[in-house]
Amino acid sequence: MKNITELKKLGQNFTLLYVEDDVEISKIMFNYFLAIFKNVFCAQNSEDALEIYENNNCDLIITDIILPKMNGLEFSKHIKTINSDQNIIIMSAHSDSDKFSESIKIDVVGYLLKPVNYDELNACLYKASLKIKKLEDDKKHKKNLKSAVKEKTKQTQKLELEKNENFEHTLYSLVELIESRDTYTGLHSVRVAKYSVLIAKEMGYDDNSCEELYRAGILHDLGKIVIPDSLLLKPSKFTPLEHELMEEHVNLGYKMLNKIPIFKRIAKIINCHHERLDGSGYPNALKGDKIPLEAQILSVCDTFDAMTTDRIYKPKRNVTEAILEINKLSSIHFNDKVVAVASRIFKNIDIDENVALLSPSHFDKLRLAYFYNDSLTGLYNDVYLSYCLAKNKY
Q: Alpha-carbon distance 296 to 362, whole Å?
């Protein structure tokens, strides 16, 4: 046989199970097969052969048809129920067509007649070995492909995570920039986020939902990045037109976040955090259950922090006063269940007195001068009185 050398090379990677009840034939063939294959197991009946098969990884089975207890065809059928890809060669002294046809149905690799023609045997072994190698190569390829896909997926997920983290860090930096513009509301978003999570946990939200709400709290005023300083830093009450302009920060924040897939749900929460149950809120005058519950939690926390933090034109209220005011608006502006939980939570909140600036910083002095000093004379203008009155609670 031309390919005998290659057959031996292939066979040194495989294990053979040989089933033959004739002891003399079994000894002769065992020695022959041992010169080709890495491992060779012999059995003289199907039961012993099954036990060997179940305890060892057999790449190829060669079996006689006439065997005690269970014939070779029945044995082969049984093996195929265990492993449909198992390579089997039938050896038989019988040449009748029924057994040959049955062997074909079992999907054997070859059917050899006794006495054995070694050229035919080698050709059949070579064919079987190539088939086994191809099957193993396919398995390795699938395994490598699966590993490659897994690694690629892992890398893609890592890149996506890094991209999302970069997005988030960029947005958080923008929020810090917004709040650094107004020292009176510094860390407002952080406080709103923390208050919201405390309420959400009390209401039974899971960790993922709380994390989502925390992000919404941090980013809820993101739209203010495009509000001009002349409006954002104005140390007095807004005119109706200025109110309308300021209210646009909700839509602007929503549009910025809604373009980023991971922030789409957060964007919806943020877009609704100034809506009110009775429809008096903005930007869409939503009512009742049309406002996401997370946004209703956010709105209560946003209002509470605004009331308990000094504004340059309006002094803060204490915690008790703020809770009373929020309760007055329960079922009108705010969800009654959220208010009930929030009231319990807020009672235990320690307001950092450093949030309220007791004396104006250099920046605030410059801001007062910009808004209240006449550009020609340097004297206070006519709106300064309203600021003083509001500041001193007159």
A: 37
